[in-house]
Every structure is written in C-alpha cells, then in structure tokens.
Design goal:
heterodimer, A: 293 residues, mainly alpha, MetI-like fold, 14 helices, B: 653 residues, alpha/beta, D-Maltodextrin-Binding Protein, domain 2, 25 helices
C-alpha cells in the first residue's frame, strides 16, 4: 500500500524536471560559459576574491538563524500551551506582518532605527541617552574628555542587518516548530510524568526529541533564505558591506551585466548551503528524522 | 492535563508580537501623513486613500497579486501535500535525491531562479512560436496562437517556488504520525484512498495549513521572480513597489498595504466570532452535525471560489484584445492622469510598467523578460542599446510634437543623427545638504570626501555617479577611459570610506535620511531635491563648481516591439506641450519641450495661485551658464565598464 501512495508524488516529480531541473541546468551552463558562449572556468577562479563576502553572509545568516531559534522555539511552545482559539489567532498574527510588503517593512525599520529616528527620539525624551552619558562618563578613563553621544548608533550596523533578517524570517521558524509541538501526542507526556519524570526531564527527553523535525525544517527555512537575502544589507546596513545576495544581484542588475559570474557565485553558494544542510542532518538523524536531503 | 501558561510566558509572547508589529504600526500611521515623507509628520490626511482609488495601475496590481497568490497557494498546497505523502511512502533511497531537488528553489537566490526561469520560458516560446508559424502557414483549418510571458508564466513560477515550502511544512507532520495508523485503517477495511482521506489527512492538517500560509505569504511578498516571469503586461503589487525605488515609494503604497492589512484583520475577527458562536451551539449533537457537514461545505466553497477565479482570468484576458501599447518607465515618473487621458483619446490600452534603474531595464531586455514597446532609458544606456542594435528607428512623421523639442536636446552624443529618440526629461546631478548641519555653504565635490563630515555623508549607490564625483574632484573627465585615472578616483572613494566619511551608500533611502535630518550631505538629482524640500526646508542644492553630470531620459521604441504604430501615438502624446507641463509639475524634472519650459511659470500660477519661486525654477531648469560645466555620460567601452564593475564590487567587499 505504501507503494501506491508514492504515486502521489509523480505529478510533482514531472513538474520539478520542467521547472526546477531545467532552469538549474541553465544556471550551470551560464556559470561555465563566458559572454561569447565558450566554455570556461574563469568565473570560478574569481571566487576567492569574494571569500570575505561568503564568510560575512554565512556568519550573519547563522547568527540570525540562532536568534530565530532562541525566540521561535519558546514562543511556539508557549503558544501550544494556550487554548485552541488563541493558538489559531496567534498563528495568523505571526504571519500577518509578512503580508505587508518586505520593502515597506524594511523602510519602517529604517525610520525606527535612524539616528534621528523614532527609537532615538524615544531615548532622548525619556532621558535614557542622558543616563547613558552620565554612566559612561563616570566609567570613562578620563571623565573630562568624555564626549556625550546624541543618539545610539543602530542603523548602518551589522546588528541592524541581523535584526532585519530575524524580523523577516522569524515566522518561518515558528510555524514548523509550532505545527510539530502543537500536534504532539499528549499521552506520551503523561506517560513520562507517570513514570516519574519532572518537567525539565519531560521537556528534554520527550518534547525536544519529538519536535526535532520541526526545528530542522525551521532552521532550513530561515538559514537558506537568509544567506541569499538582498536589500536588507543595503537598507539597514548602510550598503557599505555587501552580502552574497547583493553581490549576485549586482551581477544581474548592476552596471556591467555579468550573469555568468552571477550564476557561478550562486552555484558555489548553493553547494556550500547543501554541505551545511548535510552536516546538520547527520546531526539530527536519529531514526530517519532528517527532513532535508 | 496542560499546565496553564504563567505570566512570564505571556510577557515573552507580548514582546515578540510587539517586535513583529512595531514597523507595521509605523507604516499604518504614516499612511495618514499629509506629507510625502515616511519620516516627517506633516499632519493627518486621507489624501493617499483618495488617490489610491483613482490609481488604476495600483488597483490592477493588487488584483493580480491576490489572484496569483491565491491560485498559486491552492495549487501548491494540494500538489505539495500529495507529494509529501508520496515521498513519505517511498523508500529512503528513492526519496533522498528527489527531496534534494525539491530544495533547490529555496537555496537559489531569488534573482537566479527568476532569470533562469525566464530564460527557459523565452527559449520555449521562441521554439513554440516558430512551430506555430510553420503549422499556420502549412494548413488552413486551424491556427495556433503565438505565446508570450504573462499571467500563466507568473503563476507557474509562483507555484514552483511555493511547493518546496508546503513540502517542508507537511513532511515533519507525516514523520510525526504513527506509522501504524494507515496500516491499521486498512486492516479495518479502509481502501488506501479512504485511509489517506480519513486517517492521514486529519493528522497532518496543521502542517498543511501552515504550509499554505507560508506559500501565500511568499507569493504576496515575492518581487524578483515575478519581475522576470510576468512579461510586460502583468504587474504585481510588489513589482510596483520595488520599481518605484528609482524615484521614491509613493505613500499611496502605504495606504494600499494598510487597507489589505485591515481587511485581513477584519476577516480574522469575523471568522473567529462566527466560530465562537458555533462552538456555543446548544446541544452537542448539533455541533457534531455541523462538524460532519463542514468539510463538504468547505470543499464546495473552495471549488466554487476556484471556478470564479478561473472565470475571472479568462474574462480578463479577452477584455484586452483591442489596441495595446506596453510602456516601461521609472516609478513615480509620470502624471498618471495622462495615461487615462491617452486611453480615452485613442482607445489604446496602456500597460504601464516601471523598473528601478537603467541596468535593471537592460537585463530585463537582454533576458527577454521585457517585451515592451516604449522604454525611457537615460543617455548612456540609449547609446549602449543603439550600439547593440536593440532600438528601432522612429517614424518622426507620426510624431509632429517633436517640433516642440528644444534644439538643445536634439542630436546629442548618444543619438547624433536623432533617429531613435524623443527626449522625455532632463536634469542635473548635484549635492544636497542640510544648511543647519554644515558650517559653510557647500560648493565643491570635495565635501563628499571630506573627513570633517565623517559619518554625515551619504554616497550614492551607483558606480557611475559615485566614481564620477571622484573623477570630477580630481579634475578628470567624467567619461575618461584612462585606467589610472579611474583607479585614482576609486582610491579617493575607498580612502574616504575607510576613514568613515560615509554614513551609508544609498539610492532612494536618501529621502528619509535627508528629510529626517539624519545626514548632512548627499549627492542626488535636482528634481528629487525639490521633492525633499517640501518635507525639510533646511535642505539646499548645488551643482558643484568642478562641474557635474547632466542627463537626458528619452523615449525609444524597441526593435522587437509588437505595437509600433501605437508606440508612435504614445510618444507623440507625451511629447505634447500639455503633457510636458503636467509631468513637470508632477515630477519636478525639467521638460525638453521649448513651449512647456516657457509656459511653466504661468501654468504654475494658474494652478496654485502663487508665483513660482525663481530660484527653485532654476534648480529644476538648470540655466545655461551652469549647464555649461556639466557633461552627459557617454557609453563606456566594455573594458572600462568591466573595470567600473570590478572596482565597485571591491568597494563593497
């Protein structure tokens, strides 16, 4: 019977061949050819000069994923403990901000985080800036030479870029984790308690392992788009330090139009992501629980 | 059995929701702003909501967005769920490679997915259209239609990038399900279809719901992939918003987003109240009966909705069979009432799309995604398009209004014989500064590299303009091809960046930053300065003494255009004095039309009942003595372009 069910996937396998595999072959062809259509590996030889960008993108995406997990797991857990109506509403409320356009939301963050922005105005009005200045002056090596700040620098920092990523991808961490925790078999938890486990143990030895597939899904759904994200770094990070998404975008929509290099960078990026995912799944592979690959 | 959640949990949840909703609240508040800024509050007003309902393009794009998102979500959810079950039933060895392929669209940068799908569609349509022509010529009793990108390709693309998310949501639920459940159901006499329908489906429902939610969200939010697969006559809301970034994002967009958002909220509340009432149904039997009925009802409703949508698509396509012209321009770069006027005058339907830069336009044209009739590129891009034989010669006898174009804007270096272009607007690049934040008036490009203003300067995020400023500061020619000179200019930029002169590299983010007093100095275009001035009176504009760039944006017709005759009519209409006056007043960019330039002060007086400020007029219409020290960008040779791009990328690393 299992084999009969596997027929369900046939239409999509055909679809994938047409609209996933064929375009990816196009990308490979582009990556290995030059502007005049000849075969070349030149595009890949240039890759080393972008190593810094690769490292930066993976680092920021990793931090963002970690923060998403640290916020997303507890909130999914807390929500699942509420009443069913609360749960339904909470889930829609978590996705709802995403229905406002990404660019508009990021613009909003800009007006919040700017040097003269809403948050800094709040800090000035409540005297938090003054408080900070007097404390900092007190602890400064030479209090007379201390120059008071007029605002907290929030925009145009890497922190702002991470914030943008967390803001945009947090729902993708919460949803899969919640959908696994929410449907967990509660008799298992009762059994664990009946057998003498305390709350911490129930969580660590029962809930956590059972929710692992959702966590792995969530990590993928956050990390993967975060690595290739663009526009966040230019808008919130000041555009002085590129991320991979920006680099690729520059090749396709930038001054010199070099889709060959763009395709090569994106291919290398995908390979690294695949390797990361493989390693992660080895780690979570308990009993055929791996979600990716 | 469940422990009720304690106060601390609730506080944590509240904080997360505060984080999620803070920017949304800001956005909603500023949709009621009387000014155009997203940073400076000018008083309460419904202006943008009123404008919204007169803005056909935005309303159409909202409709397209909802339609494509809904359809893509329904299809992707159904296919994704079945596929997830299919994968689940497979042996691991068969499944693993398929799942790997499934993840490719997620791992690929959006732009790469978009471009590669576009290339595929273009290749297929090219092949199909040749085939159709051959078939149609060979026989008479049937005609095959020729195909181009449009709603269909957009839908395919959306379904493709949605399915992986549905799979990722549903698969964990399946794995969580007790494997023996389905077997048990079959042992108890279910067929395998019943086992699926009655046992598996309810188990994985939460996964399906969250998958559908994610899919819908991805669809609503997607821009790049839509950009490359929607063709020239279909636009989504996200595309409209992104392409506005060459000029600025219209507050109308804030209004439309707020409305969408509030609609969803209201729906949510209504559904919940209804559910709550049902749950309070007097007897349990009634509730059970209701539950028995509800899946069937839901399916019926869903099917009905699908039917309506499909009907809508077909009626929509048939409506557009009359004369059409596909125009691609910049965001917020036309007085939109002109489009309606042209349509009612000529009966031609205008499909008006926008991009955000010359480079984006170029890559849309190159990849085949942009099958436009009329485009409005800038000088240097026109030269490049001409040199690559992509533009059609214009039929000037069909454009009598060309006679109004001032001779100063004819026969320019990009089109010396004036065979391809009719100028649309022109203007200058200069320095915008905040008088209250600098101690002396700025007159030179050196301000853009001066350590004195560290952290206060906004450099433009565009290699040509940024390096151009550095070249002029060093006393070199704007169009130099000398590698040493260009490298020296780059060094100047790079040193300034190292010293922390630049607060940020910006394009249209410059509006919010300058209007809100977050930065002292920026370089940008004169017309945009006039818009900013409305929101911050301390701003000043100067064309630096070393000279600057002046630019012309001109209307051209593509060689591949399908509607050349309509294109000429459109160009002639836009070149008229009346259209030029309307545009000049709307976008603050100078007109190339001699009569419009002369008449504008009177036109302004009639419209607003006050004298036009002479000084502001001269910023928009740069006087000849200033223009004298400015130069047009010329199309650079391929080697130099490559150097520019390479240096620019290095600056960002």
């Amino acid at each position: 019977m299992k084999n009969k069910l596997s027929r369900f996937s046939i239409p999509y396998v055909i679809w994938m061949a047409l609209f996933v595999v064929a375009p990816i072959i196009m990308v490979v062809i582009y990556a290995f050819s030059s502007a005049d259509g000849r075969f070349t590996v030149e595009n890949f030889l240039q890759m080393s000069s972008y190593a810094v960008v690769f490292a930066r993108s993976f680092k920021l995406a990793l931090i963002a994923t970690l923060i998403c997990l640290l916020i997303g797991y507890p909130i999914s857990y807390f929500i699942s403990k509420e009443g069913i109506r609360f749960q339904q509403v909470a889930m829609v409320l978590i996705m709802l901000p995403m229905w406002m356009n990404f660019l508009l939301r990021t613009y909003s963050w800009m007006s919040i985080l700017e040097n003269n922005g809403l948050l800094n105005q709040f800090f000035q009005q409540t005297g938090i800036i003054n408080l900070y200045n007097s404390i900092a002056a007190h602890f400064a090596a030479d209090p007379t030479a201390y120059e008071p700040i007029a605002f907290f620098q929030m925009i145009d920092t890497q922190g702002a870029v991470v914030l943008g990523m967390v803001y945009n991808y947090l729902p993708f961490m919460i949803l899969p984790i919640y959908s696994v925790i929410g449907k967990m078999d509660h008799s298992l938890l009762e059994a664990a308690r009946d057998l003498g486990a305390n709350s911490a143990n129930v969580f660590r030895r029962v809930i956590l392992p059972l929710s692992l597939p959702g966590v792995l899904s969530g990590i993928t759904m956050v990390f993967v788009p975060a690595v290739s994200t663009f526009a966040i770094s230019t808008m919130l990070g000041g555009g002085t330090k590129l991320l991979l998404g920006d680099l690729i975008e520059q090749q396709f929509l930038g001054g010199s139009y070099n889709p060959h290099l763009g395709a090569a960078i994106s291919l290398v990026m995908m390979i690294i992501v695949v390797v990361c995912m493989l390693i992660m799944n080895k780690f979570g592979e308990g009993e055929e629980q791996a979600v990716i690959l | 059995m469940k422990k009720p959640s304690n106060g601390l949990n609730r506080v944590f949840m509240a904080l997360v929701f505060l984080f999620l909703y803070a920017p949304i609240v800001v956005l909603i508040v500023f949709s009621f702003n009387a000014g155009t800024s997203n940073a400076v509050w000018k008083g309460f007003s419904f202006e943008w909501y009123e404008q919204l309902f007169h803005n056909r393009m935005i309303m159409e794009s909202v409709y397209t967005t909802l339609l494509v998102s809904l359809l893509a979500t329904v299809i992707a959810t159904v296919v994704g769920t079945f596929t997830a079950i299919g994968f689940y039933a497979m042996r691991r060895r068969t499944r693993a490679p398929l799942e790997a392929v499934n993840n490719i669209p997620m791992m690929n940068a959006d732009i790469v997915t978009g471009v590669s799908m576009c290339l595929l569609f273009v290749a297929f349509f090219g092949f199909w259209n040749d085939f159709a022509e051959w078939v149609n010529n060979a026989q008479d009793f049937m005609t095959l239609p020729s195909l181009s990108m449009g709603f269909g390709t957009l839908l395919i693309a959306h379904i493709s990038f949605n399915i992986p998310y549905v799979l990722l949501s549903v698969s964990p639920k399946l794995r969580q399900m007790d494997k023996n459940l389905i077997d048990a159901a079959q042992d108890l006499g279910c067929t395998w279809i019943q086992a699926f329908w009655k046992v598996a489906l309810p188990e994985i429902k939460p996964g399906i719901v969250s998958g559908a939610l994610i899919a819908f969200t991805m669809s609503i939010d997607d821009f790049v992939i839509s950009y490359f697969t929607a063709g020239s006559s279909t636009s989504t809301l996200a595309m409209a918003i992104y392409s506005m970034t060459k000029k600025r994002v219209s507050p109308v967009i804030n209004a439309v987003s707020t409305l969408l958002f509030i609609t969803v909220l209201v729906l949510l509340v209504v559904v919940n109240i209804r559910d709550a009432k049902q749950a309070q149904a007097p007897t349990k039997q009634a509730a059970d009966a209701g539950e028995q009925n509800s899946p069937l009802k839901k399916i019926a409703l869903g099917a009905l909705a699908c039917l309506v949508i499909v009907a809508l698509i077909f009626t929509g396509q048939h409506g557009n069979s009359n004369r059409v012209v596909n125009v691609c321009s910049w965001g917020e770069y036309i007085d939109e009432s002109l489009i309606e006027e042209f349509e009612s005058q000529t009966g031609i339907t205008v499909h008006y799309q926008t991009t955000d830069s010359n480079e984006t336009l170029y890559s849309l044209l190159k990849s085949g995604a942009g099958d436009y009739d009329v485009i409005v590129p800038s000088d240097y891009m026109i030269a490049r398009l001409i040199s690559e034989d992509m533009l059609a010669e214009l039929d000037y006898s069909a454009i009598p209004n060309f006679a109004h174009i001032d001779s100063a804007y004819q026969h320019l270096s990009y089109d010396p014989e004036n065979r391809y272009t009719v100028p649309y607007t022109w203007g200058t690049l200069g320095i915008i500064y905040n008088e209250s934040m600098v101690d002396e008036p700025i007159t030179s490009w050196s301000a853009m590299f001066d350590e004195k203003y560290a952290g206060q300067v906004l450099m433009i995020r565009n290699s040509r303009d940024a390096l151009g400023a550095a070249l002029l500061e060093l006393g070199y020619d704007l169009n130099t091809t000398d590698e040493a000179e260009i490298r020296a200019a780059w060094q100047l930029l790079s040193d300034a960046k190292q010293k922390g002169v630049y607060q940020a590299f910006v394009m249209d983010e410059v509006y919010g930053k300058m209007e809100g007093g977050n930065a002292a100095i920026a370089m940008y275009y004169a017309g945009d300065y006039l818009t900013m001035l409305e929101n911050n009176e301390d701003l000043r504009f100067v064309v630096p003494e070393e000279g600057s760039n002046w630019f012309v944006d001109a209307m051209c017709v593509l060689k591949t255009a399908q509607h050349k005759e309509e294109a000429m009519e459109w160009i002639n209409f836009i070149a008229s004095t009346q259209s030029n006056l309307a545009n000049m007043d709307y976008i603050y960019y100078a007109s190339p039309n001699t009569d419009a330039l002369a008449e504008y002060p009177d036109y302004y007086f009639d419209l607003y009942d006050e004298e036009l400020d002479r000084e502001l007029y001269e910023i928009m219409v740069t006087p000849p003595e200033v223009l004298e020290r400015c130069a047009l960008y010329e199309n650079l040779p391929a080697d130099t372009l490559r150097l520019y791009n390479q240096l620019w990328t290095q600056l960002g690393i």
